[in-house]
Amino acid sequence: MSSKGFASDAKIGAVGGLRVGVVGAGVMGSNHARVLAGLPGVTLVGIVDPLPEHRARATALAGCRAFASLEELFDEGVDAVTIAAPTHLHHEIALACIARNIHILVEKPVASTVEEGRDIVDAAKRAGVTLMVGHVERFNPAVAAIKQAISGEDILSIGITRVGPFPPRMSNVGVVIDLAVHDIDLIRWFTESDIVEVQPQLSSAVAEREDIALLQFRTASGVLAHINTNWLTPFKARSVTVATRGKYVMGDLLTRQVTECFGFKPDGSYSMRHLPVGHDEPLRAELLAFLDAVRTGNLPAVSGDEGVASLEIAIRCLEQPAKPAASAARKGPRRIAG
Ligand SMILES: NC(=O)c1ccc[n+]([C@@H]2O[C@H](COP(=O)([O-])OP(=O)(O)OC[C@H]3O[C@@H](n4cnc5c(N)ncnc54)[C@H](O)[C@@H]3O)[C@@H](O)[C@H]2O)c1
Predict the structure, then answer these.
(1) Which pTM value belongs to this model?
(2) Hey, whose CA ends up nearest to atom 19 of ligand 1?
């Protein structure tokens, strides 16, 4: 390959803006490309995917060039890359980018294992490149409104529900790595504290991997939290409740309605109000935050260390093997295709 591959800091933000590429033209990567194509100060260099039909779909969606290999993208010269390839490839692709001093946003979860995640973090620190992890839920305006509402409050407990139907394509991970990792990150972010105790209950009712998870946590700051997640609900639901000493905050992450109860009186009465919530597309806000960190050299909104910490908790939840659900155990395991 050529010696191109990245632009030096001196070139970042120069005429034409940041040169950005996307790796993986699947569901997430195509969305990254669509959003990046519309951002000011960004030149979307192209998207990489080994599958011609995925390249064609992404090109149609984002109007950008597409490449069959990472090397071809490097040859064009890029300052930053977003990595939305399957999780088991994050490590290899991230290290290849870091070796060329290319700033990276890695989709969640940061890697398949904690060791691989730490490797990426260490390599990025050594090279001095920006590494951000794509915990996009932090950029959901409803989540931002909840975070603001509980700022400075004495948080007591958090409950998060993230349920829905089976994804159209089954990947090789269960609900804990696919879904709960979003909420593990939110619990750590809301409380600004590490999770120190984990009590997972997992079950595989239909899939080979866990498809129901009830996860309980205690943070170092003493907050109790739980996550209820599954792929057995016919509709999507995502909700967050936070109890603090002075407030009870309820947020629906899909309708983006956030309400707080406050002013508790000894007679049991209280006040209630809906909170203002923004309209930003979370992925757009996330990518803007990443590009801002690249341009300024400031710490990114979601650091590699935070991504690894959330992955570590998710993996601890999985250390207890999933049991078949009661009815499945009676009838024998039922597996889904793929
Ligand atoms: N932040 C979120 O809310 C969110 C949501 C979904 C997925 N994700 C994450 O995004 C990543 C991708 O998930 P997805 O749902 O888009 O998967 P996907 O299967 O739709 O897409 C993955 C794409 O990567 C391509 N690919 C395979 N090998 C490659 C390689 N060597 N180089 C480049 N591309 C390669 C595949 O052909 C496919 O097009 C995963 O890490 C997943 O956990 C995050």
Answers:
(1) 0.91
(2) 26
